[in-house]
Mediator of RNA polymerase II transcription subunit 33A
Amino acid sequence: MEIQFPVELEKELEREVSPLVSAMGMGKGVGPRGSEIPSPELAQLIVSHLCFRHNHPSLWKFLHSALSSRLLSPIHVLALLTSRVIPQRCSQPEAYRLYLELLSRYALSFDLSMPDTSKLKILESVDAELQLSQTYGAPVRDLGHAFVLFFFNIVTCLIDSSLDDWGLQITSLDKPGGAVASMDHQHMDIDSYGSYQIERNEHHQQMRQKNSFMAIEVLERLTESTKAIVLLRLVYLNMPEKFDGLIQRLQFLEADKLIFSNLKSANQLLERLSANVKKVPSFKYQLKNQQLIRMLVNVRSNNPVSCCNFGSSSSSCWVPFDIFMENAMDGKQLLIKSAIVILTEKIYTLKVYNQASWQETFLALWLSALRLVQRERDPPEGPIPHLEARLCVLLSIVPLAIANVLEDEAKLHPSVQESGYNGMDGKGYGERNLALISSLQLLGNFSGLLCPPASITTAANRAAAKAASFISISKNGKDGLGSGTPTDSFLDNGGNMRHLIVEACISRNLIDTSAYFWPGYLSSSVVSLSDITPSQKSPWSTFMEGAPLTDSLADLLFTTPASSLAEIERLYHIALNGSADERPIAAKILCGASLSRGWNIQEHVVNFVVKLLSPLVPPGHIGPRSHLIDHMRMLSAILFGASSVDTVHILSLHGVIPEVAASLMPLCETFGSLTPTSGNKSKTGDEPSIYMVFSLAFLFLLRLWKFYRPPIEQFPAGGMGPELTLEYLLLLRNSRIVNQNACAQDVKDGSMEQLRFASDKPVYIDYYPKLRAWYCQNGSCIASTLPGLCSGNPVHQVANKILSMIYLKMTKSVASSCNSSTPSGNSSTPSSSNVCGSPVNGGEDACQTHMLSAWEVLEAVPFVLEAILTACDHGTLSSRDLITGLRDLIDFLPASLAVITSYLSAEITRGLWKPVPMNGTDWPSPAATLLSVESEMKELLASVGVHVPIWSSGASPLMLPLPVAAFVSLTITFKLTKNLEYIHAVVGPALENCASACAWPTIIGSLWAQKVRRWHNFIVVSCSRSVFGQSKEAVVQILRSCFTSYLGSLHNSNSLSTKQNGIDGLLGNIIATPPGVCPFIAPGIFYLRSCRLMPDIRHVNDMIVELVTEYARESAARWASSDTPRVQSSQASLSLAAVRAKEVATLGASLLCVSGGFLLVQELYRETIPTWFLSLKEEKPGKVSALARIIEGYAMAYMLVLSGSFVWGVGDKSRLHSFSRRGRIIGIHMNFLARVLEGNILLCCDPLTWKAYVCCLVSLVVSCAPAWIQEVKPETLQTLASGLRGWHECELAFSLLERGGISTIGFVAELIDMIN
């Protein structure tokens, strides 16, 4: 209903009747006509007359009275006035002055006690008048949201108005839109009707000048209020770019206040205003709430890492670094994501949760990597990654992760290079660079960790020599300060691990050569330059001078790592475009020491290795013949060189496994489709055949995932996600291609930054029909049995030909099948010679007229295996002939080993074959070592606290199912040479998988222990791990041992923080055990190597939660009952118990993540924790203290949030592949909390535990992972905030809502009156 401006009111105002009386009369006049109070229509009416038809002082007084009596809404009236008065402030200075007075009184008044219809009208009017939706790029959701934007709009408008009045303008800033932004000089001389009635009287001029200062004064008074800071903080947290604009305005004023005289008188006002606004980012609520949660969340470890000894338990808060690095050394688990990326996110996460400085964070990271290397000073025997992979982490992965962190700082603060410390190269260093330098300097205090392993002592000495040479040249004033190289001189001693670390950082431009001058960097044992005798010239210098790749030079280059990218680039171009003889030699050199020990350029070497696997099609190439055939010798060399256990693991650490898989697929498709002819056969033993090149590529490809396991078994646990499959690898590779094309270098991915693939298009398995056909057939063979042979099927015809070849060879030379072998030479590539020692000529002669492609052979092999295994089972084929036939098949086509492995693994699980006696007559006997292996297994398990029955041979005859017997008997016939690592890397994991899934690990282990005596300890440890795949009780016990070794025993009151606990207690100081001694392995290492064998991963989840809560309760009870003086106060007791609970939760989160990755963390959020709160628990007799209940809830919350941060990251953007699932999983858990707080779910836990859990969880998310909050539904956040307010945790409620994004801004504004 339209409201008319009453004539009586005009008369009353003219008679100077009290404005309050007039307002009351107006209220009575409005009420009966059905208008709401506050009345939006009345506000529109009054402001329209006031601006500027009835610009009478009495009407302003009436407006003030109407606002104070709540007849009008302050936000509505001020919004109406703002859009009208500010643009006309120069022609209407009196109105502007009165507007500022109203603003100072009512700008922070906000009342929601009005009808919904009034709210909607006021919201629409405020939005329209100030154009808030257009200015801030989002629709205004509610009146609270409008209030926040209105206040921020007022602040920026008044500052812009004063700047405009003083003749200052910032052209780079966006001004508020609409009429408010139209503060141009035209309005200074033109009134609201456009007539040129210039106000030049002295009174108006003085008023204009005073108004501009008064506007700043009003802002200064307003921003002193806590309410104003809260409103500005909402903008700072949820619209940072807008808040940055406000900061830039204030900085502009501060910069110009000394230049313009009219600003000098406002200096103090501007300083106070600027100080008020700068309080916003660091503002802390000061409400009357409990301080308990703040104390728990802000607790820090007692001893900083910089002051601790490397073995002490004070580094416990950094144990996730150690666990991740040690877990990454598991050769059976290839990382699907670059370790650089994962470690980068861990750096950010642990810095936040440990409330550490960058110096402490970097130092802890270096110490963890050094401990990783020191654990393998004496490498253990066995087919596992060795020292090269650990040095890769220390000297390549860690520096590259730190490089990501430093680059992030440069992106966030581009001006960081313009301030701070300047290095010798003139480069400016920011906070993180300086922290890195400081951490490297502090490394010198940890001499126990810096002693280099014997194999790299020379490299450490060369690094020290380079520094000594640099210093000497610098002091002598010679040109070319960097000319000294580690090969120009030789030192007998003085080098340590810090010298290698510093060189790794200098080579990546993280620091400069001023590090050479650090005090104590070069020890007294480093001789002076005058005493250094020249050493032999570097072979790489000879190579770069153009020397041909002779055998002698190639051998030196192979064993000497390159020192520069230029050397590697030249080698790459020779491997790709050199002569026919040079290309394989260059490829071999590339996979030598430069890849394994070229730490300063390792990411570049990895890049070139991957690129060589997929050479580009040369220009002008036409015809059906593949260009890959021309590169066959080079490809054979690169495949063989990259197939070693350590090399594959290094590629995995750099995160290029998906790219390797995509590169290997066209090689398999091409060479597997070629039919060998007499012209393709090798003329010399060192020449690769088509079968050999295919086998190298095919077996390499299959090593990248568990090809021998059913799909349902490939997702129980592992690493940071599910086990790999070929489809998943291609999916990862394709997603990286898409990301690189869409946003170039938005997120760095270590060496991935430099990879440019032969094809930047997605790759799918359907592109390779032969490979896809085998892939499908392999899945079918694993899932079901095979049909019998028939003559009409082409595949079966091929199988019959292969059977004929095998039987023909059996009849020719049975006696020589195992004993006539001689080791092959150390050539650059594997030759076509046999794998097991039997001659191959007979089989090839038999197949001379029936040459088959590799794919044809592989397709028929399962039927060949079915036939000969059945014949052996029926007694028509002896066990010796069976193994001889399998060896002959592998000698003929080494790739057939994959099919044999897959087929026998599947048949083992079916249980259809009868057992055979392992008596030494028909099949090999393990009796010679069986008892010792069983005894050492029991002793090893007992040493880590595992006491469960294990299978024992006893007096029963030793029997194995026929497929198991055939598989293990076949594998022990393989020669153990470096040239056959590509064979052992395929059968080893498959054989261990078979052993762990059955009751015969000791028989299998004993057979291998007899063959390779130096692997005895490795075999005992591997056999011992199988118990965790068969016994849940064993899993419980090893987990408890991990907690005990790290935290001390709950039953020993003196074991809370001893030197035997902590990281050294958990992971040990050394892995290898001397030969002849029963092997020992630390509980943590044992668990990390065994957790993927555990079939029920949910049980692991439950056990970790139980152990965390148990240790938290018991430690709290122990501290509370302690008689020591330091825990006499409840606050001290709580702090000490919280430190202990934090250590417990950190260990639990770390073990949980390595056990099952994001799948297990997802289960923790969705099922495990909710179920724990809903379930009745059996507790020990005796009363549990309130402190123990609180600490229990805190420990659970800390473990939950920390484990989520490990797999999802803490920022609004994350490099981790599981980041996209974060919002959904967190939302599910938050919904559970909200439903409980609403009373929709009843719990069975102690109320103190529940309250501590909820409060600590919210507080940890707010302080450590605020980006998570915006991914939760606003309604859920509002419910949580209401529950927290009910517990008088108002600070938490505000902190939660203010970080909820645009959608929750209004909720905070509605609660603003609660703030004093």
Q: What stands out?
A: The chain is about 60% helix and 0% strand. Residues 142 and 161 are 28 Å apart (CA to CA). The longest helix spans residues 1130-1174.
